[in-house]
Amino acid sequence: MILTLTIQALASMILLVPPVMAPVLSTTLSVPATYIGFYIAVAYLSAMVSSLSAGAMLTIIGPIRLSALCIVSSAVGVTLFVLIPSIATLALAGVFIGLGYGPVTPCSSQILIKNTPMHRLSLTFSIKQTGVPLGGVLAAMVMPTLQELVGWRSALGIICVVLFICALVSFLAPRSWEPKATAAAKSFRDEFIDALRMIFQIPVLRTLAICSFCFSVCQLTLMTYAITFLHSEVGTSLVLAGVFLSVSQAAGVIGRILWGYLADNFFSTWSVLLALAAGMLMSAIGVFYIDANASQWWIIFVFAVFGATAIGWNGVYLAEVAKRAPEGKSGSVTGGTLAVTYLGVVLGPPAIGLISQATGGFGYGFLALLIPTIASMILLIRTRPHFTGGLK
């Protein structure tokens, strides 16, 4: 669990490093900060492809070794950008980082669904998924400080070294820690088609996948544009903006555990997801009203609620996906639903960036998140009988 949690955190951290460094990179590369949204789109498009491939790759390589290869892929992408910094190599880094990011969650899901009691599944998945906001905390707190101390290229070089060390430790882990790898019974193409067919044939999985599309737009908008919004429009320093973003990430850690506990013990998954969608909606409105005169405590409150909801939903969602997946298919079905999740990330940040550019401010971009949040709430309300008719 410690190893997989570490891998999840590092994979999340390296994915978010370019958005955290957006003000510096935009100056260095002489491009608008909104271009970083396109890096996110490239990264998650690659993640979408690799997550769909996860079912087949898991049977061949095994989850821990595959996770280690994912970290190596991310490290290679960052190294290329450090050596030749340009828009082209940033996009190429996004490809390598995305390919590495996609299979990490299906790897851990394949292990947890076989070794966790069903009545503790939401909490267990939520604890494991804290690796994502923990990675966000690391990116938001460490990178601004590192780049001020040693420069952005040296800061990225240090992160690359850490990634390669983690990958080496993972490769040395005992084989007994993971399920025995077997030969793939199906082609990658068949895995793609079968996973997507199962998702859209089972109503709850279909609803979860579409809601994850909407939620991921909110999550990555927060992660991608928060620092740029706070620094460029609100007037905070880069370090203070990083602190505010890290507050949202820390709240996401707490939220993931709290929502998982509530879904296991007090409320249905459906009701928790509906409440989270409402929280994202209110948070987006709150960000819109932040300006240079806003109290720091108000900013902390808004970003804490935003992080707890927009970052905290994943564990409950993934646990429900694992519950509803046919036996032995949790890895491939998780990969399939994550492909829909990542599609939201591919389309969301660039769209929000374009809206922000057209309206003259990121505040309006955050306000546009009312569209996906309201859509997800309507969908959940309309499909409630499918959730309550079987497993909670």
UniProtKB/TrEMBL annotation:
<dbReference type="InterPro" id="IPR036259">
    <property type="entry name" value="MFS_trans_sf"/>
</dbReference>
<protein>
    <submittedName>
        <fullName>MFS transporter</fullName>
    </submittedName>
</protein>
<keyword id="KW-1133">Transmembrane helix</keyword>
<keyword id="KW-0472">Membrane</keyword>
<feature type="transmembrane region" description="Helical">
    <location>
        <begin position="331"/>
        <end position="355"/>
    </location>
</feature>
<feature type="domain" description="Major facilitator superfamily (MFS) profile">
    <location>
        <begin position="1"/>
        <end position="388"/>
    </location>
</feature>
<dbReference type="InterPro" id="IPR011701">
    <property type="entry name" value="MFS"/>
</dbReference>
<dbReference type="GO" id="GO:0022857">
    <property type="term" value="F:transmembrane transporter activity"/>
</dbReference>
<feature type="transmembrane region" description="Helical">
    <location>
        <begin position="296"/>
        <end position="319"/>
    </location>
</feature>
<feature type="transmembrane region" description="Helical">
    <location>
        <begin position="361"/>
        <end position="381"/>
    </location>
</feature>
<feature type="transmembrane region" description="Helical">
    <location>
        <begin position="271"/>
        <end position="290"/>
    </location>
</feature>
<dbReference type="InterPro" id="IPR052952">
    <property type="entry name" value="MFS-Transporter"/>
</dbReference>
<feature type="transmembrane region" description="Helical">
    <location>
        <begin position="152"/>
        <end position="173"/>
    </location>
</feature>
<dbReference type="Pfam" id="PF07690">
    <property type="entry name" value="MFS_1"/>
</dbReference>
<feature type="transmembrane region" description="Helical">
    <location>
        <begin position="36"/>
        <end position="59"/>
    </location>
</feature>
<feature type="transmembrane region" description="Helical">
    <location>
        <begin position="207"/>
        <end position="227"/>
    </location>
</feature>
<keyword id="KW-0812">Transmembrane</keyword>
<feature type="transmembrane region" description="Helical">
    <location>
        <begin position="239"/>
        <end position="259"/>
    </location>
</feature>
<dbReference type="InterPro" id="IPR020846">
    <property type="entry name" value="MFS_dom"/>
</dbReference>
